[in-house]
Amino acid sequence: MIDHSAITSISDLITEARSKEKAIVFISGKFNILHPGHTRLLKFAAEQGDVVLVGLVPDDDKDVSVPGAMRIEALKSLTFVDHAFVMSFPLVEIIRQLRPDVVVKGKEYQERENEEESVLKSYGGRLLFGSGDVFFSSFSLLKREYFETNYSSIIKPKDFPVRRKFDIRDLKEVLEKFRNLRVLVIGDLIVDTYINCEALGMSQEDPTIVVSPIEQTTFVGGAGIVAAHARGLGANVSFVTVCGDDESANFARSKLADYDVDACLFTDTARPTTNKQRFRARGKTLLRVNHLRQLSVDAALSSELIAAVEDRLPQTDLLLFSDFNYGCLPQPVVDSICEKAAARGIMMAADSQASSQAADISRFRGMTLITPTEREARMALKDAESGLIMVAEELRKTAKAEHVVVTLGEEGLLMYVNKEGQLETDRLPAFNSAPKDVAGAGDSFFTCTSMALCAGIDVWRSVYLGALAAGCQVSRVGNTPLTQAELATEIDYKPS
């Protein structure tokens, strides 16, 4: 007799998945002891859709040696299996009622008669055969790595809130204040391309790593992701930048529109849109290739940038300079914009990055906040020897900044801040114990901290919230904009 209650339970799961336009994949078998062949076949199933259901042969089958509950537990430990259950009725009947988009079977069944094939054809389902080979296209599996935040890897320090007299839960109220902010971002647009590869080994001809590209994912980066973060966190955002006349620019325009960012992109035919390619394998970046032309915009384009910013200043509460030193912000542009923004009393913050290029964060004068790395701070001062606190103090004086936060990667950050006229220092550790991609940490920290300060939040809570934002961002790969919901979830999250 068919267990209709079980079918109903699984049907509810499928109904929810279909409401979100997710493809359902079904695979069945005994799965007594999970071995690499099983894992590869299940991974193959996972890449064929979004939700993977596994049906288990009942315990009373003569070839089943492990109880169903234990087999279910083992399968559910795999991140690419969404639901597993013991089948209490014929396979064909399950498929007829659940109507999965895809049914996956092992390669050994390809030349056999498969009774479920006729049922699948009746409603347009597909029957696919996986070999269990080591090589498989892993993009569908990597979607979780790219777009899902791993909250369990984030550790929120408890001593800092106690020392600075605030409750972590109160930070959710800060997020609500972001909705009233009007943010203007100016800086270098970058398009980031992540190319995921299968590592094949070492070349026999020379000491070269050999990889095979599987899939690529493209993101808006640079100052563009700063604008997208600000919008995702709730602010109304305008973005002024320079791009080339190419497909990368078209991609950025489209993506920024999707993010609801008011983007003003000036085309400079003398340069391509900066594109950074990252080749990755097994969760690590092997190589980065930058496609760019590192030259300052000319006088005519500089005037257009200044005019575009000036037009938007009356509707601006916070001005963010996101400088990657690729030519969008020559000093005359910076000086002119700073003068006009200061005259209106607009809060300004700056981040000037120097990963593979020279940078000088001190050229942004009169900022409420600057957020250099230690290398960037020392580069600006040409000081490789002084203690870090002395470097932060000298940089604050040189740049005439109110607050300096020096980011230190896995060591966290150092704050040198002006608290009600008194200069104070403090430190925070890195919040994420297992980052997947640290490339976006600085942008998310800079954006969130600046917005909190502009919303009238004290510097300690602002920096803590910014560090939390960075912890969320590095828990996935690539530049996906932060959202208020993500931060609110992390604020509430308590490890089990």
UniProtKB/TrEMBL annotation:
This is Adenylyltransferase/cytidyltransferase family protein. Residues 27-117 form the Cytidyltransferase-like domain. InterPro entries: Cyt_trans-like, PfkB_dom, RfaE_dom_I, Ribokinase-like, Rossmann-like_a/b/a_fold. Catalyzes the ADP transfer from ATP to D-glycero-beta-D-manno-heptose 1-phosphate, yielding ADP-D-glycero-beta-D-manno-heptose. Pfam families: CTP_transf_like (PF01467), PfkB (PF00294). Signal peptide: none annotated. It comes from Pontivivens ytuae. GO terms for cellular component: cytosol. SUPFAM superfamilies: Nucleotidylyl transferase, Ribokinase-like.
